TrEMBL record:
GO terms for cellular component: endosome membrane; plasma membrane. Residues 410-532 form the Arf-GAP domain. Residues 270-372 form the PH domain. It is a peripheral membrane protein. Residues 117-147 form a coiled coil. SMART domains: ANK, ArfGap, PH. Keywords: ANK repeat, Cell membrane, Coiled coil, Endosome, GTPase activation, Membrane, Metal-binding, Repeat, Zinc, Zinc-finger. GAP activity stimulated by phosphatidylinositol 4,5-bisphosphate (PIP2) and phosphatidic acid. ANK repeats lie at residues 688-720, 721-753. Residues 375-401, 536-562 are annotated as: Disordered. This is Arf-GAP with coiled-coil, ANK repeat and PH domain-containing protein. InterPro entries: ACAP1/2/3-like (IPR045258), AH/BAR_dom_sf (IPR027267), Ankyrin_rpt (IPR002110), Ankyrin_rpt-contain_sf (IPR036770), ARFGAP/RecO (IPR037278), ArfGAP_dom (IPR001164), ArfGAP_dom_sf (IPR038508), BAR_dom (IPR004148). Residues 390-399 have a biased composition (Polar residues).
């Protein structure tokens, strides 16, 4: 190791030593300036990059809006959606790059400046102080007179002590200088190497992403070439049609009438004739509006044996004559206006004016022909009776709540590492892993986590157990799986195929090949045996004898009544909902609810809007019983579960296995289904096109919902009744799930087949917690839109309230079940 300042010269305190110190001190000062400048430039680069990502995200949202606008054009919508998704992935990669840049450059170099260089400065101050004291002792020792023995001894002692202190501090100072000179190389190069690796991963991910998109872009380019050819052909056809119409218009101009006089009694659309006519007012004055002729000029048509008119295309037609068989038509020559005719029915008459004599004759003939045709086609019309499907009988929901496994007050690292197998890296076995894959539920060392990042977020989402913040539902998800569970799935055939698992000291290339084979290619996953089609997949619903007896003995049992329900469960539900509405929506209850969260003045204004809940609840109380009994929204949600609960999951297809395991709250089976290739948004056609996420809502597990969302589940997919996961969670009163879906971007404005959105459902169900969450989310959304904060989380108080609800849903769910508990305790 090269020594910057020699220790021997330090003891001598020679001019060479002082010159070396001066050179080193100047070098350290300049190094500090350079590092401070580099850190400031890094901060500016990160801020600029985040601003770029924000602008890029707004641009991507614009592309998505254009895609939604082009929903009638499948090619444009599909292409723009794919491109916007790709851009979103690139934005995510950019954010990861900026985070790693902040850790590698800003954090590391700032630490070096604030700690190591600061220690050097402190040592320098001590050295300068003791050096000055030594000089003073030398001068005093030289000035003392020899005949003053007492002063001689005192000066000698002071000089000896000062020299001893000087040597000690000087040696420490030289040691600090040499350590700093040695460490500066490693710190600078380590931070820059980490920065370059971050760029390598960024460009590698971007290359892989666009490589997957490349074939689609190539096909799209070929389609665009064909579209250009088709457009040229259509242009020629339209030019030819334009020429034909222009010639026809010239003939009409020559004849002096530009009116189309054709009518067709047998028209396919039922419209015999249509066109503009002036209509005289039907009031007592019988006047024509000369100042505003557009007020009396209407688009008339003869259709379905009626004469109707409308001002605009979107307006509902106004019926002039309901049955042409009961009317007559005649010329009107006794008024001042030309080209008028009158349609007379038994109850009223209508004076109309055409634009020319030929057009008047055409309209009169069209009406007369329609009258004659109506008489010939007179006959009885049979009404079609619509068959209404009978409501399905209810069945009892089965399932048990997952036991609480987490201890409060522990850090994320402590909680996760307590799970079996999590004390070592899932892929290489290195002890004390500090990183995790949140969608897989495993812990990783720092090197394996970097490899997981390169796979892409659709395979693995990496997060630090010590540096990142953890939401409570995500932490519970990590504690429900673990390395042992996932390795039993993804390494089931490891010994059969003869592949050796990497060790902590293995090369990075070896680990990278193994991880890719394990999670991307899934070479070690035990293939699912091919089984016969299950009764559910074939459309046949089979119940075990015990459930069959329950279904026939208690067909009216519903979710609202629960397992403790007695006779007339619907009446009990009505009574409990009415009592709950009276207790929940009084002003005192709302005040206590909002004072619990200590909201700011910005959000406290919701009190005034929530005070209207009392009035709306009172108005709808008298209609609640009929609404609950007639509307299937409150009863059959859990009635169709019997077909997906009683089969061996190993004999089901991956999608159906995921669907069943989501309801049963079985995360290992869900992870196994995904490993076997299950589509996370699989749709069960036999059960109203419900998805696994909707099944997880019905099962009542917050962690199951979080697992599906982390693995790419769409929170806005709805079933055949128009209800998404947010609808179902609101109906079932699962407050924690409602909070989770709102945080994950659920559309609370969507309505079901009955025209109800989640907020109206929560108000009818008298659930104050869910009403509060929905209204806060809606108000926060309006605030962000009004202030132009697109892509931002919104008000801090809003975030605090949702954070409190998440903590209660994950750690104290009994607090959110207080309304259900109070109902179950009633006689």
């Amino acid at each position: 190791m090269r020594v910057a300042v020699d220790f021997e010269e330090c003891l001598k305190d020679s001019p060479r030593f002082r010159a070396a110190l001066e050179e080193v001190e100047g070098d350290v000062t300049e190094l500090e300036l350079k590092l401070d400048k580099l850190v400031k430039l890094c901060i500016a680069m990160i801020d600029t990059g985040k601003a770029f990502c924000t602008a890029n995200k707004q641009f991507m949202n614009g592309i998505r809006d254009l895609a939604q606008y082009s929903c009638k054009d499948a090619l444009v919508e599909t292409s723009l959606t794919k491109f916007s998704d790709t851009l979103q992935e690139m934005i995510n990669y950019h954010n990861i790059l900026f985070d790693q840049t902040q850790r590698s450059i800003k954090a590391q170099l700032q630490t070096f400046v604030k700690e190591d260089i600061k220690k050097f400065k402190d040592a320098k101050k001590q050295f300068e102080k003791v050096s000055e004291e030594k000089e003073n002792a030398l001068v005093k020792n030289a000035q003392v007179q020899r005949n003053k023995q007492h002063e001689v001894e005192e000066a000698t002692n002071i000089l000896t002590a000062t020299r001893k202190c000087f040597r000690h501090i000087a040696l420490d100072y030289v040691l600090q200088i040499n350590v700093l000179q040695s460490k500066r190389r490693s710190e600078i190069l380590k931070s820059m190497l980490s920065f370059m690796y971050a760029h390598l991963a960024f460009f590698h991910q971007g290359y892989d992403l666009f490589s997957e998109l490349g074939p689609y872009m190539k096909d799209l380019g070929a389609q665009l070439d064909q579209l250009a050819v088709d457009a040229a052909k259509e242009k020629r056809d339209m030019e030819q049609k334009h020429s034909t119409i222009q010639q026809k218009a010239a003939l009409q101009d020559y004849s002096g009438d530009d009116t189309k006089l054709e009518y067709n009694v047998d028209a396919a659309n039922g419209i015999v004739m249509e066109g503009y006519l002036f209509k005289r007012a039907s009031n007592a004055f019988k006047t024509w509006n000369r100042k505003k002729p557009d007020h009396i000029r209407r688009w008339f048509s003869i259709q379905n044996n009626q004469l109707v008119y409308q001002k605009k295309f979107k307006d509902n037609p106004t019926v002039v004559v309901e049955d042409l068989r009961l009317c007559t038509v005649k010329h009107c020559e006794d008024i001042e206006r030309r080209f008028c005719f009158e349609v007379v029915s038994p109850t009223k008459s209508c004076m109309l004016q055409a634009d020319s004599e030929k057009l008047r004759q055409a309209w009169i003939k069209a009406v007369q022909t329609s009258i004659a045709t109506a008489y010939r086609e007179k006959g009885d019309e049979s009404e079609k009776q619509e068959k209404k499907p009978s409501p399905s009988t209810g069945s009892l929901e089965t399932g048990s709540e997952t036991k609480e496994k987490l201890l409060k007050g522990e850090s994320a690292l402590q909680r996760v590492q307590c799970i079996p197998g999590n004390a070592a890296c899932c892929d290489c076995g290195l002890a004390d892993p500090r990183w995790a894959s949140i969608n897989l539920g495993i812990t990783l060392c720092i090197e394996c986590s970097g490899i997981h990042r390169s796979l892409g977020v659709h395979f693995s989402k990496v997060r630090s157990l010590t540096l990142d913040s953890w939401e409570p539902e995500l932490l519970k998800l990590m504690c429900e799986l673990g390395n042992d569970v996932i390795n039993r799935i993804y390494e089931a055939k490891l010994e059969k195929v003869g592949v050796k698992k990497p060790q902590p000291g293995s090369q990075r290339q070896e680990k990278e090949a193994y991880i890719k084979a394990k999670y991307v290619e899934r070479k070690f996953v035990e293939k699912q045996p091919v089984a016969a089609v299950s009764p559910l997949e074939s459309g046949t619903k089979v119940l075990p004898p015990s459930q069959e007896e329950k279904r026939h003995s208690a067909p009216e049992k519903s979710l609202l009544a629960g397992e403790q329900g007695v006779a007339s469960p619907k009446a009990v539900a009505v009574i409990s909902d009415e009592a709950r509405r009276e207790s929940l929506f009084c002003p005192d209850e709302l005040d206590s609810l909002f004072s619990y969260f200590d909201t700011s003045s910005k959000l406290r204004s919701i009190r005034s809007s929530d005070s209207g809940i009392q009035q709306s609840a009172d108005d709808s109380r008298e209609h609640l019983a009929s609404t609950i009994s007639a509307n299937s929204l409150y009863e059959p949600e859990g009635d169709k579960q019997e077909s997906s609960v009683f089969f061996d999951s190993k004999q089901l297809s991956p999608g159906l296995q995921l669907y069943q395991a989501a309801f049963e709250k079985n995360l290992p089976n869900m992870a196994e289904a995904l490993a076997h290739g299950a589509e996370v948004n699989w749709v069960n056609i036999e059960e109203n096109k419900a998805t696994p996420l909707i099944q997880a809502v019905r099962g009542g597990s917050l962690v199951t919902c979080e697992f599906l969302l982390q693995n790419g589940a769409n929170v806005n997919i709805r079933d055949t009744k128009g209800r998404g996961p947010l609808h179902h969670a609101t109906v079932l009163g699962h407050t924690g799930q409602v909070c989770l879906f709102l945080k994950r971007g659920a559309n609370q404005h969507a309505t079901d087949e009955d025209g109800k959105d989640p907020l109206s459902i929560a108000v009818e169900a008298a659930n104050a917690d869910i009403v509060t969450l929905l209204r806060l989310a809606r108000m926060n959304e309006e605030m962000r839109e009004s202030e132009g904060l697109y892509g931002q989380p919104g008000d801090e108080i809003y975030q605090d309230i949702f954070r409190d609800f998440s903590q209660m849903a994950s750690n104290n769910p009994e607090k959110l079940n207080r309304f259900q508990q109070s109902d179950s305790q009633k006689p």
